[in-house]
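Throughout our pipeline, every protein is held as a single compact record rather than as scattered files. Nothing more is needed to write down the fold, since each code stands for a local backbone conformation. The record that follows is passed on verbatim for readers who wish to inspect the format.
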Amino acid sequence: MDNNLKRTIIMEHYQNPKNKGLIEDSSYGFVNMNNESCIDEINLLVKIEDDKIVDIRFDGEACAICTSATSIMIETLIGKTKKEALEILKNYEYMIDEKEYNSDILEQAIVYSDIAHQPNRKKCALLSWWGIKKALKGEYDERKI
């Protein structure tokens, strides 16, 4: 994928993130993720029914990479089964860590394929994905918002 197209996709998801804003609904699990080395703090609400991700919402303060990665993650994972989502997550992490991965299942998340060249931004690109992994394992935080 061309670098200009990657930049365009990242900026679109940063400026117009998908599913931004939390809701009051106890059927959603809550996960808080933060990066101690910068401002990134993301709160995720995840709704899973019949082993399928039916909704993900988020809010928080984060840089362009973290915000756009969260938005792209949401768009990629809604409608997927837990098993499908875990496979996508594994391949996304492999891509970020410069390991062999299946690019075909990453959809727009492929825009972060070069993030390894900026090691200080890797955690920005991974933070919300780690949060979803926690949610898929049922490791929710107490909601304090």
Summary: The chain has one domain: 3-136.
